[in-house]
Amino acid sequence: MYHIKTFNAIAPQGLADFTADYAINQSEDPDAYLIRSVDLYQQTFSKNLKAIARCGAGYNNVPLDRALANGTVVFNTPGGNANAVKELIIANMIIANRNIIAAANWTQKVEGADVTLRTEKEKTAFNGTELRHKKLAVIGLGHVGSLVANAASDLGMQVIGYDPYLSADAAWHINQKVKRATSLIQAIQTADFVTIHVPKNVETTGLIGTSELTMMKPDAVLLNFSRLGIVDNQAAITFLRAGKLRQYITDFSSKEILHEPKVTIMPHIGGSTIEAEVNCAKLAVAETKAFLETGNIQNAVNMPDVQAPFQTQYRFTLMHRNVPNMIGQISTLIADAGINIENLVNSAQADYAYTMVDTNQLPLAKKNTLLARLNAIDSMKRVRILCRS
After folding, report:
1. Which of 42, 90, 251, 262 is deepest in the core (most CB within 10 A)?
2. pTM of the prediction?
């Protein structure tokens, strides 16, 4: 029996994918957490905690280093809310170009029954422009960015994308009409709209700042639905007030941009649809089950993806630091127990690595001794022995 603890409200359609081998919220020492926005930095991780699955793409609420030190794999659900974010991006571009919010607010102040006739002479103040033939720069062509690029292209926009880390697999999903820029400046300098879809890290923090805004058209609209800090908000305000940027639309609030007339702030609703919550919950459950039952890792954010068919009777999974001779020590101890290795896979990410060893032999009399010896290897963080039913 595996024990799962949930934080926040996890879509029941996702939790329903757990089988009878799982107990939900029945133990304070669970095998795995399923979370959304809860801050885990103040949480103490028990040694039994093997996995944390974040129902969403962002994971800045999880202390990855502490999870690694505890031997806990952290998953996210990339792409689970991508369509929801895409739709909100397209909606905001239409709203920005057609002055929809300003027009609706103005109409609420008009007195009299026949609003259409009374506003006929004055509605020209809200004349907008169409998205068709406008140029959109998409920075980051992953799960969300590629969908935005394709949708904008279908609407007749000229789309240029920039992603120096674009994978071959991701490229297959991008419309052939989308042009690829070789630099960030090339992508943004002639764009009517610039939308950012990159993860937040040291390289992308402050990605759009004074230098980049200087290169953009003064009537451009900037959208940030990635993470707070990727756009320098103070720089954006400076350009908006100087008439060198038309509008800034973001899903992340900060004191610099509050109550600015040319800023539209969404209350972090990019992935807030019923469908997205269900998608993310189902993916998080699938990742958690696969890891607990087979040891396979997919969509981890603090460990490499490691997957292999579980076709033998037993599997050792070992999470350890990425240092020399770990594979040698593991193999030697297993061989000394009289066990023949049928398959071994190993992959590393930065300072940590993950190894899976498959075998059809495991003398029960030696199991506990072998487990203790493997755990005693210097730099070993967690060892599990799985049995295929």
Report:
1. 251
2. 0.84
